[in-house]
């Protein structure tokens, strides 16, 4: 009963000249919605964060590409990077296997890199000049440097 009253009283305070001010959602409610979206798919979570600064401020930033909460799930890479215009960054196309949604993602991080492999939609990139390897989450565009594999001596 208490939660019903709280929701009812909250919805009446949201009205402002016949409109709702969604920016003023309580942070606890925004965090709950964000958590549910994140359990479903990181792309929905990123859309929520992009909606307004107040919502961004009360949700976790996907800084760490190795944080499993922010890994794209049920997305597949449909195309190798391509340039849709001469002056634009490389673009990749991804498909959601659950909803059928298609995303075209501009990835300037691919400049100077070669995609070596894909895993869970994370891209394994090799820098063309230095050979350095990194992982890239294409939805959050957060790269993560990785350590080079331990090289064994041929005699060991």
TrEMBL record:
Residues 22-62 form the F-box domain. PANTHER family: F-BOX DOMAIN CONTAINING PROTEIN-LIKE-RELATED, OS05G0123400 PROTEIN. It comes from Leersia perrieri. The lineage of its organism: Eukaryota, Viridiplantae, Streptophyta, Embryophyta, Tracheophyta. Pfam families: F-box-like (PF12937). This is F-box domain-containing protein.
